[in-house]
């Protein structure tokens, strides 16, 4: 008796497509009501490409304030690294008042969907420059920063420990490119016990004199809309990031989309945008710009699911990639 196997005559390309569908692992977190995607198929294909390439080819680039930290908790805003400095240990009441006036003036401009990045750029420079000048006048002491962070209500997003620990365990570099205050940022991560060796930070760092008093800010000002320059001038020089063409990028502003511009010969870049505020006004621009948009989502559920998906299955291939490059 002769048995006929009908699919044996099916074109190879079709068989591979069927096999891909049968073996494809779904990510349930992408079905959350807070998740928006313009092209779901492209997102899934990018994730699968990252999976096949393995952990050794991946790097994560992220903003900090309102991206790795929460935007709000119990209906109350969570402080940014600049806001953490609003502590009587560090600044006086007059400085607090002036910083809040600047926030009320410039933050609406930063998130105004009707303005172009070119229009916003000089205003952002103006904002951060004025804030830094105010802070310098306060003669902030370095040895008081840790206490100010401890007394603040700063909070990393739910699931942050899984995020940081997972990347460290699989030796995937995490580059944090922040327009905040680097010294405060480091202290927040340190006090949450996730400042691992794979974490690299580019931010606005304070310059203290020999007595530990703030006298200036180091280097070029980093703000929301010039992160491309920061990525090109600093990130490209980090040896740990070389040979990792796949990027998971996390941000909460359209300006964050340029953070991967310093990556040499990128192959797969997946962008995730946290839409925290003025949702209806900015939803369309975020969907058109980020691959995945997370609406008022205070967790790291989606980034963690994406990372666990490729890394869990391809740790071995990632290790082999690293070994090959080191030879």
TrEMBL record:
GO terms for molecular function: 5'-nucleotidase activity; magnesium ion binding; nucleotide binding. Its EC number is 3.1.3.5. InterPro entries: HAD-like_sf, HAD_sf, Pyrimidine_nucleotidase_eu. One of its GO terms (biological process) is nucleotide metabolic process. Pfam families: UMPH-1. GO terms for cellular component: cytoplasm. It is found in: Cytoplasm. The keyword Nucleotide-binding applies. Coiled coil: none annotated. The keyword Nucleotide-binding applies. Keywords: Cytoplasm, Hydrolase, Magnesium, Metal-binding, Nucleotide metabolism, Nucleotide-binding. It catalyses: N(7)-methyl-GMP + H2O = N(7)-methylguanosine + phosphate; a ribonucleoside 5'-phosphate + H2O = a ribonucleoside + phosphate; CMP + H2O = cytidine + phosphate. Its main location: cytoplasm. Specifically hydrolyzes 7-methylguanosine monophosphate (m(7)GMP) to 7-methylguanosine and inorganic phosphate. The specific activity for m(7)GMP may protect cells against undesired salvage of m(7)GMP and its incorporation into nucleic acids. Also has weak activity for CMP. UMP and purine nucleotides are poor substrates. Monomer. Belongs to the pyrimidine 5'-nucleotidase family. This is 5'-nucleotidase. The gene is NT5C3B.
